[in-house]
Amino acid sequence: MFSKIRIIVIILLFFFLKNTFAEQKYTRIVNLKGEWKFNLGDNKKWAYPKFDDSDWDNIEVPSNWENEGYNGYDGYAWYRKFFTISSKYINKQLYLSLGVIDDVAEIYINGKLVGKSGSFPPNYNSAFNAKIWLPLPDNIFSNNSQNLISVRVYDSQQAGGIYKGDIGIFLSKPLVNMSINLEGSWKFKTGDNPTWSQINVNDKNWDNIIVPSYWDWQGYNDYDGFAWYRLTFTINQYEYLEDNLILMLGKIDDLDETFLNGKFVGSTGDLIISPIDGSINGKDNKDFNVFRGYEIKKEDLQNGKNVIAVRVFDGLYQGGIYEGPVGIASLKDYLLFRTKNLDGKKKNFFDLLFDK
Fold first, then answer.
1. What average pLDDT does range 201-209 have in this prediction?
2. Residue 151 to residues 98, 145, 162, 272, 322: CA-CA distances in angstroms?
3. Neighbour-count burial of 83, counting CB atoms closer than 10 A to its CB (0-12 exposed, 13-18 middle, 19+ buried)
4. Cα 165–102–112 angle (5° rounding)?
């Protein structure tokens, strides 16, 4: 039996290694902490770089706006900050971290919506404790020049604003060599309709949602039931793809059926017979923690427009496509990813330490 001192040493070593691995995965390339421009009220024009915010107040981020001179204010406000980013990062996988925002937020870069947290009135839904970590589109930045991040915030009561967390833009160390990266903004709709799997569905008026991220953090707090995700993407250089591919959808809470260009390509869990049974709500259900990797062929894709549709059922708590990587990889690269990141985790850190 381990002594108390030895157990404490092991625990401290575990957290040290955990933090070390986290630091190796992401590198901050833009620090967004510090002074931002700030104004009360609500105007969508404030999202755009050409708007003159020179007469706005300055505010420290992260902090509650109550602690920055706006004590007792509840309602709408906007944050704006200009920054530069080196052109060497433009085609890399980048993420925006805004910590947590009390209560609701929409996030824009150069006037384009890149993410949100919670939902605004009249369908108000707070996400005051949701961590905002957004995959960024490749074409969102201006090379070697000024870029603008603007954040629309609504606070219903008590403290408000971008109030805590690590604020910046981070470069991700890829976990897998992805042929097509599919992380970012998808179309989303609650409910269930089998025709939504088809390629020509009009999803223009569907909501936009960030993948990967729980839907509860994006305006659908505590929603349990069926919902659909759809993504339309274009392949311009079809020839570079290998014949054997894997559609990677990360982890989904709880169950899914997935379609590519209207064709069923895979599922995890049983959505056909009975989505509400002991295996979903019971303590033995582990489908939410299963990594989705569905085999597809090159001929399943089209040189041009392609559509992925994912039918999801969540039984309780948080739901949706919540963890990546999400994209299309060669079978070879996928197997390498599994060896390093999934299959190799059959034994965790404590298992190794306590092995006889």
1. 93
2. 10, 20, 9, 41, 23
3. middle
4. 80
Cβ contacts of residue 251 below 8 Å, gap of 6+? Answer: 212, 288, 289, 290, 291, 292, 321, 322, 323
**Percentage helix, strand, coil for the chain under 3-state DSSP, each rounded to 5:** 20, 40, 35
What per-residue confidence (pLDDT) applies to 272? 57
List the structure tokens of 123.
């369908």
Contacts of 153 (CB under 8 A, 6+ apart): 76, 77, 78, 79, 101, 103, 104, 105, 160, 161, 162
**Could you give the residue ranges of the DSSP H alpha helices within 32-178?**
none
Least confident interval from 47-51, 244-248, 314-318: 314-318
Of 280, 277, 287, 275, which Cα lies nearest the Cα of 322?
Answer: 287
In Å, how far are 20, 203, 278 from 189, measured between CA atoms? 39, 9, 26
CB 76 within 8 A of CB 46: no
The SS3 call for residue 286 is coil
The residue whose two tokens read 């306590």 is 354
Using alpha carbons only, give the angle 102, 96, 139 rounded to the nearest 5 degrees.
Answer: 130
User: Tens digit of pLDDT for each residue in 9-68?
Assistant: 333 334 333 333 333 478 999 999 999 999 999 999 999 999 999 999 999 999 999 999
Residues 47 and 108 sit within 8 Å (Cβ to Cβ): yes
Q: What is the pLDDT of residues 152-204, one digit of tens each?
A: 999 999 889 999 999 999 998 778 888 999 998 899 999 999 999 999 999 99
Transcribe 87-127 into DSSP letters.
GGGTTS-EEEEEEEEESEEEEEETTEEEEEESB-TTS-B--
DSSP summary character for residue 188: E
